[in-house]
Structure formats: structure tokens, C-alpha cells
């Protein structure tokens, strides 16, 4: 089927278009995260940890079923050389059936889940989430064109407005009802907004048919199996913590993970969302382009996220104390541990995007099953004795094992020796290590949580300033001592130069239009 955005696809190399797409994805995450952070800071003062824990538990349960029934039709359309209308319509029909089935399963499981967790309020929340899951199946399948054609500016718009609407509804209702239903309403509005926007932004109107099911069946089967494995791996901690420690601990853990994974969720994941179509395009058109793209993207991400992970871990105490208050201090060890572990996800996520682009779903499923089994075993071993700290250690250890294997398989696929990757990473890694030593030595890193907001703000400001300065100086000193070779530093400087050039060009245009 001809793509609506095909005529407007940006020209240039696949790497350049992927980089532009990554910029839009990061911009989307940053914009929505800023609003999300503001809303969270408001909500933690209007709601109690039990409300967050209840919604986190319900969302984990509903999302697990949704992920378990993921069919991967969008990814298959992205990989296909020339998808036709039959493939799009069949994909829409399969997604609709999946949404209805997920909603029905969540609805049926609402009462048993409430009994299992001994939480009566869980049942009506799950019933509401069941309706929203069924609604999401109505989304227009053709918006996958935005990713296929690397038009992430449109993906930005598609995701932004529903997110804004959901945040506005959540905050407004929180002021009025002061209960967890404000969070439920925000989830529902966000999903409904995505459906509306998908038809507003793309003229394609899907039809109900399964005529092309054979072209999607094989990939869908592997995608479903991978989703099942992912469900066990990613949702096990909430279920174990909820069962062993209660919903309040789930709330503390959820807030800790939210803070600790900021570099991954706000930088790595959106960039990797742009990388998967970019790797697929390279695989279709430029067979050998994947090696250079993989190395350059991994190095640039390392340059940006390694210091962020170290920094978040180092200032976990003041961040939680200042942003969330004394009732949330149990989240501090979760932030400190998973902040370090989260740094490793950049390599595994880029590797996963590459393996998905090459349709290595069976391999990903085996890795995910192994990582999920390891995580569940460590959670059951460490959580009863060490509480939330044990849960964080269990998750961190499983993340390390999983992502080492993912990187190794990606290197094998690209026929790259490990030293080729290490040569791109040693400078940001060493600079981040020096930053960590300095923060530890000065007492500004991994300090006990301050007792007052003023002392927390001062400690946070001092630690952030010293860490950022130390990392920047160490990184560019190492780069200069190495003779300023081509690498992540030159890519970053080139990207900044292009962005400044675009902003400079926009200003005269804005003045003329005014």
C-alpha cells in the first residue's frame, strides 16, 4: 500500500534520517516526561503511596495480558519490502481481536486477582482497565507508516496530545476526588486520545479482513511467544513484591524504578524506537550499513547515558527526599541500585532493535526466557530477606546477565569482534568511572537521605554540578589525549552544530511570518 507520508520522506542517508527520528523521539519523551514529572510531584501530595501501589499493581496485571497477546504486526509491516492493503487490513483486524480478547481476559480475572492480592479495590480498577484495553484495539494501523518511513515528527505529534490530555485529566480529578480513580481516568483518556489521533493524522481507513493472515502468522507466533516471555520477565517484580511485601511496597518500588530508569526511558528507549526501522531500512537497502550504525549509535548513547545513570544513583537520597518527601525514602536503595544497572540497558536495547529488525525473534525469545527465569528466581530468593533492596539487587543482576548476552549476539550477527565496540566505549566509560569516584570521595554521592528539603536541595545541586563538570572535563580530556579521533564526541558535536543551524534558520522565518 502506498504510504501517505512517502512523498514527504526526508532525503539523506539512513543513519541521518534515523538520527533525526531519534531526535523527535527523545523530544517527545522529554516533553511528556517534564509534564509527567510535574504531575507526579503534584500527585504524590494529593494521593497516598497506597493509591500509586494499587494502580501499579493493576496496570502490571493488565499490561502483562496485553503484552502476552502482542502480535507484532506493526513490526512485520515495517520489515516488509512492499506491504499491500491486505496486510494493513489484516493487521488492523488482528489488533482489534487482540484488544477485545485482552479486555475480556482482564474483566474475567478482575475478581480472582483481587482475592489473590487480598485487595478489594483492585477489582473495579481492573474492570475499568479492561474497557480501555478493548478500546485500544480500534487504533488505525496505518500510522505505522510514520515509523516505516522514518517520519518521527508525526509520531511525536501522535503521542504528545493524548499524553497531555491524560495528564490534565489526572491532575484535575486528583484535586477533586483525591483517590486512585484520577490515575485510572488519565490512563483511559490517554488511550482514547491515541485512537482519535490515529484517524485524524492518517487518511487510511482500515477494513475488517483476515485475507493476509498467512503472511503474518509465522512472525505473529514468534512475537506472541516473545511477548509471553517478556511478560514474565518485566512484571515479575511487581507481582512478587505485591504478594510478599504488600501494595505500599509496590508503590515505593514503582517510584524508585521511575526515577532510576529515567536515562533509559527518556533517551535510550525512544532512540531505539527510531533505530529499529532504521536498522530494517539498512537491512533492506544497505546490507553492510548496520555495522557502522550499530557502533555509532551505541557509542553516542553511552556518552549520554552512562553519566546520567551514575549521577541518578549517586544522588538517590536527595532526589527522593526533595521530590517525594520522607514517606517515600524506602525507594532510595531501589534508585541507587537500578540507576547503575539501568546504564547497561542502552547496549541491550540497541542490540534488541537490531535483532528485531532482522526478525531474530526465536533468539530473543530464548534470551528473554532465560533472563525472566533468573529474575524470578533471584526475586524469590532475595526479596523475603532483604525487602525492596533485595528486589532491586535481583532485578539489577538479571539485567546485567540479559544485556551482556544481547550484545554478544548482536556482535555475532554483524560479524563484529568485541574490541570494535570497546574501542568506541572506553572514553565515556572511564570518564563516568572517574566521576563516580569523585562523587564518592567528596561525600556528595551515595550519601544518606537529608532530613530537610533545604539540605536535600543543596546536596542535589552540589552533586549534580560536580558530577556533570567532572564527567565533561574527563571525557574531553581523554578525547584530546587520544588525538581527537572520530567517534561519539565528533558525532555529538556534529549533531549540536546541525541543531543550532536549524534553529538559526528558523528565527528569520519566524520574524518574517510575524
TrEMBL record:
Membrane-traversing stretches: 21-48, 54-73, 94-113, 125-143, 164-188, 208-226, 300-325, 331-356, 363-382, 388-407, 428-447, 459-481
Localization per Swiss-Prot or TrEMBL: Cell membrane
Family assignment from sequence similarity: Belongs to the polysaccharide synthase family.
Keyword Membrane attached: yes
Keywords: Cell membrane, Membrane, Transmembrane, Transmembrane helix
Transmembrane helix recorded as keyword: yes
Membrane topology field: Multi-pass membrane protein
This protein's name: Oligosaccharide flippase family protein
Alphabetized InterPro entries for the sequence: Poly_Biosynth_Transport
Predominant cellular place of this UniProt entry's protein: membrane
Amino acid at each position: 500500500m502506498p504510504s501517505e507520508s512517502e512523498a514527504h520522506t526526508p532525503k539523506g542517508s539512513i543513519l541521518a534520517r534515523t538520527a533525526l527520528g531519534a531526535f523527535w523521539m527523545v523530544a517527545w519523551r522529554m516533553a511528556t516526561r517534564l509534564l509527567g514529572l510535574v504531575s507526579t510531584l503534584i500527585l504524590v501530595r494529593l494521593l497516598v503511596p497506597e493509591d500509586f501501589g494499587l494502580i501499579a499493581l493493576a496496570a502490571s496485571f493488565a499490561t502483562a495480558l496485553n503484552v502476552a497477546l502482542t502480535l507484532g504486526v506493526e513490526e512485520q509491516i515495517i520489515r516488509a519490502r512492499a506491504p499491500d492493503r491486505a496486510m494493513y487490513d489484516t493487521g488492523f483486524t488482528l489488533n482489534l481481536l487482540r484488544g477485545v480478547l485482552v479486555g475480556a481476559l482482564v474483566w474475567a480475572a478482575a475478581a480472582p486477582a483481587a482475592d489473590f492480592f487480598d485487595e478489594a479495590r483492585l477489582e473495579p480498577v481492573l474492570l475499568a482497565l479492561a474497557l480501555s484495553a478493548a478500546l485500544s484495539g480500534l487504533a488505525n494501523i496505518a500510522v505505522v507508516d510514520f515509523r516505516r518511513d522514518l517520519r518521527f515528527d508525526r509520531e511525536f505529534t501522535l503521542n504528545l496530545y493524548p499524553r497531555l490530555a491524560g495528564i490534565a485529566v489526572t491532575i484535575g480529578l486528583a484535586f477533586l476526588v483525591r483517590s486512585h480513580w484520577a490515575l485510572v481516568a488519565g490512563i483511559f483518556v490517554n488511550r482514547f486520545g491515541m485512537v482519535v489521533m490515529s484517524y485524524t493524522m492518517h487518511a487510511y481507513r482500515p477494513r475488517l479482513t483476515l485475507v493476509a493472515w498467512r503472511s503474518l502468522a509465522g512472525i505473529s507466533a514468534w512475537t506472541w511467544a516473545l511477548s509471553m516471555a517478556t511478560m514474565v520477565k518485566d512484571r515479575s517484580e511487581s507481582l512478587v513484591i505485591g504478594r510478599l511485601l504488600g501494595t505500599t511496597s509496590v508503590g515505593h518500588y514503582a517510584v524508585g524504578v521511575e526515577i532510576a530508569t529515567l536515562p533509559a526511558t527518556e533517551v535510550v528507549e525512544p532512540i531505539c524506537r527510531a533505530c529499529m526501522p532504521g536498522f530494517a531500512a539498512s537491512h533492506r537497502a544497505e546490507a553492510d550499513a548496520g555495522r557502522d550504525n550499530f557502533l555509532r549509535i551505541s557509542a553516542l548513547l553511552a556518552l549520554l547515558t552512562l553519566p546520567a545513570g551514575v549521577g541518578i544513583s549517586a544522588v538517590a537520597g536527595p532526589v527522593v527526599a526533595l521530590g517525594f518527601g520522607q514517606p517515600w525514602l524506602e525507594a532510595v536503595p531501589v534508585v541507587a541500585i537500578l540507576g547503575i544497572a539501568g546504564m547497561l540497558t542502552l547496549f541491550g536495547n540497541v542490540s534488541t532493535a537490531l535483532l528485531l529488525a532482522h526478525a531474530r525473534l526465536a533468539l530473543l525469545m530464548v534470551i528473554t526466557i532465560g533472563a525472566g527465569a533468573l529474575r524470578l528466581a533471584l526475586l524469590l530468593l532475595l526479596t523475603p530477606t532483604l525487602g525492596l533492596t533485595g528486589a532491586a539487587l535481583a532485578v539489577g543482576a538479571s539485567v546485567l546477565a540479559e544485556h551482556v548476552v544481547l550484545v554478544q549476539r548482536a556482535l555475532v550477527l554483524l560479524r563484529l569482534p568485541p574490541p570494535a565496540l570497546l574501542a568506541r566505549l572506553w572514553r565515556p566509560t572511564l570518564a563516568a568511572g572517574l566521576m563516580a569516584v569523585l562523587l564518592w570521595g567528596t561525600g556528595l554521592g551515595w550519601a544518606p537521605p537529608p532530613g530537610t528539603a533545604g539540605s536535600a536541595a543543596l546536596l542535589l545541586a552540589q552533586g549534580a554540578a560536580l558530577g556533570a563538570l567532572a564527567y565533561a572535563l574527563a571525557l574531553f580530556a581523554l578525547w584530546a589525549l587520544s588525538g581527537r579521533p572520530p567517534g561519539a564526541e565528533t558525532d555529538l558535536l556534529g549533531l549540536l552544530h546541525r541543531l543550532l543551524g536549524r534553529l538559526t534558520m528558523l528565527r528569520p522565518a519566524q520574524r518574517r511570518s510575524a
